[in-house]
């Protein structure tokens, strides 16, 4: 089986703690449920699966041609 989380095109996924989540929500003036969703079973989350629970927020950092790197946030759902 191929581990897609190790592929060079899969961006870095990091689970945020409570303080970081509050900072993101305040910065964008949104609620947690307003964030785009990502399934807990998403193949890119395989390495984080033991640490990720429904309701967590994941920071996805990907390469970008225009800004060097782009940071987006996803709410983990089942």
TrEMBL record:
GO molecular-function terms, A-Z: DNA binding; DNA-directed RNA polymerase activity
Cited Pfam families: RNA_pol_Rpb5_C
GO process annotations (BP): transcription by RNA polymerase II; transcription elongation by RNA polymerase I; tRNA transcription by RNA polymerase III
Keyword list, A-Z: Cytoplasm, DNA-directed RNA polymerase, Nucleotidyltransferase, Transcription, Transferase
Catalytic activity: RNA(n) + a ribonucleoside 5'-triphosphate = RNA(n+1) + diphosphate
Subcellular location: Cytoplasm
GO cellular component term, pick one: DNA-directed RNA polymerase complex
Domain RNA polymerase subunit H/Rpb5 C-terminal: residue ranges: 2-76
Taxonomy, superkingdom: Archaea
EC number(s) on file: 2.7.7.6
Function: DNA-dependent RNA polymerase (RNAP) catalyzes the transcription of DNA into RNA using the four ribonucleoside triphosphates as substrates.
Protein family (similarity comment): Belongs to the archaeal Rpo5/eukaryotic RPB5 RNA polymerase subunit family.
Subunit-structure text: Part of the RNA polymerase complex.
Protein name according to UniProt: DNA-directed RNA polymerase subunit Rpo5
Species assigned in the record: Halosimplex pelagicum
Source taxonomy: Archaea, Methanobacteriati, Methanobacteriota, Stenosarchaea group, Halobacteria
């Amino acid at each position: 089986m191929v581990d897609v989380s190790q592929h060079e095109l899969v961006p870095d996924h990091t689970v945020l703690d409570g303080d970081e989540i509050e900072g993101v929500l305040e910065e964008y003036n949104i609620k947690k449920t307003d964030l785009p969703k990502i399934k807990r079973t998403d193949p890119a989350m395989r390495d984080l699966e033991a640490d990720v629970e429904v309701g967590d927020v994941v920071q996805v950092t990907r390469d970008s041609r225009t800004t060097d790197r782009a940071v987006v946030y996803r709410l983990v759902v089942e």
